[in-house]
Amino acid sequence: MSTASTRLPEGRYGRTADARADRTLKIVGTVLGAALLALVGWFAYHYVGQNKISGQVITFEASRDTVKVHLEVRKDADATGYCTVRSQSADGAEVGRADFRFGGNATRIDEVVTLRTTAQGTTAELLGCHAN
User: N or C: which terminus of the chain has fewer CB atoms within 10 Å of its end residue's CB?
Assistant: First the structure.
């Protein structure tokens, strides 16, 4: 004895409700994915495009109550702003923090700045640079 098939013949009755739902979900997912990608791109563009000053610590030299930090700052020619530097002690406590201002027409500034500390600093960390 043969068993009867419960499946409908393919192509005879059009798409099933599951196929229509799958297609709708694919379209909605594609649109949402494209919107998310555009949003991330917009934020990235404005973050990178608006940051007119960047810097890095080249070297530092710590003494009992100061840390001399060699900073290299790159900026647009007309940009003014500041970079924030901090120092920590061996146990991780912050012993000094200061903002150093930069201006002028130079696009690259290579300068040694002195950070006063409350105790012996063991690090010099650039927290960030910001345009005014």
Answer: N
Task: Return the domain boundaries, the chain.
Answer: 12-50, 53-131
pTM of the model: 0.61
Residues 36-91 pLDDT 10s: 999 999 888 877 666 578 899 999 999 989 999 999 999 888 888 899 999 999 99
Tokens encoding 25: 């979900």
- Assigned CATH for 53-131: 2.60.40
What SS3 class is residue 36?
Answer: helix
SS3 120: coil
* Residue at token pair 């810097």: 55
Q: What is the dihedral of CA 100, 106, 107, 113, to 10 degrees?
A: -30
